[in-house]
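Retro notes, item 3 of 5
We never archived the inputs for the pyridoxal-5'-phosphate complex last cycle. Fixing that now. Sequence and ligand:
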Amino acid sequence: MQYNQPDKFGHFGRYGGVFASETLMPALNELREAFERYRHDPEFIEEFQYELKHFVGRPSPIYWCKRLSKEIGGAQIFLKREDLNHTGAHKINNTIGQALLAKRMGKKRVIAETGAGQHGVASATVAARFGMECAVYMGAEDVIRQAPNVKRMELLGAKVIPVQSGSKTLKDALNEAMRDWVANVDNTFYIIGTVAGPHPYPEMVREFNSVVSKECQWQMPELTGKDPDYVVACVGGGSNAMGIFYDYIPKDNVKLIGVEAAGLGISTGKHAASIEGGSPGVLHGNRTYVMQDEDGQILSTHSVSAGLDYPGVGPEHAYLHDIGRAQYVGIEDGEALEAFHRLCRIEGIIPALESSHAVAYGIKLAKELPPDKNILVNLSGRGDKDLQIVFSYMNEEKKHV
Ligand SMILES: *Cc1c(COP(=O)(O)O)cnc(C)c1O
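Structure as it came back at the time:
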């Protein structure tokens, strides 16, 4: 199929766009112009490629899970190893791109907001790498829950600002970051960590992360002689999924599957599956699927994985869902934990709990398919950051036996 999204206003069909206050418009316009100017600039692209190779360690390999696939007895499972990137996840691809853009725009300071802390760490990392000042907004609750990541950001020279308003979590941190941006737009670049926010962020973050599917275009044929039959990725905001989907979108022979966090089950309401369990609305500057009540109030979410615990989803996923180009499914906490342990034991890889959702669905799917089908799963990050959570679940289980 032909694919040419978004339009110049950032619309992916009826999703996306710019829902922001007048005060933000000059900053967004400046960013849009800079992105349009540099995205095709050979020098910019060359510098981006250089950083991806020498600082991040790209290309990340694709690994064939021979033992796991054999044990399942169905399709073959392959992992795109984004966990092997510097800082241990895909988020660095995008923060490098945005930091290079900030540099071109003459901004000496970057800001970010973070919930679980992973995007804060990736932003602090590139700020240190390029000699920029960095402030990270974080809900006061999250500062306590994610103490190791706060320490990491501080070691990297960033200033972590606890936000005391509202529920003291991600959405409050987001409001504060916006306020900072409007007040300091002359010297400040706002780095968003997923394919959400007002235009041009969803398109820009997709662009920087699409290096992942570009690599897969030659890596899978090199390994298997053909494209994968299925590409599977977890979806929080949706940046790792857009990254591995993007170059496959025009290829109708490749099925795309996004895996949302079904938490304790969609029917319990305790989940973070915005597409399966939400409806169209406006969140964080764009129109998309959101988890909301009848009055449009945003609902609280639950997932065992902090990185998937977000009540919205990037607008491009909303569009891909509606036109049927990608399919979205849910994986519950327990299923993700089971896949986590299985990958540890059978393949010697400790996956992030976010990525474990994609692995869990990959396993389910493999069971239903013959051995000559190939499933490419995006292993978006490594699991070292999640050990405390995994141990606390293991202790809970012991108590119940
Ligand atoms: C943040 C994070 C995610 C979720 O973000 P997306 O924008 O949906 O990719 C997934 N996996 C890992 C390892 C993360 O750190």
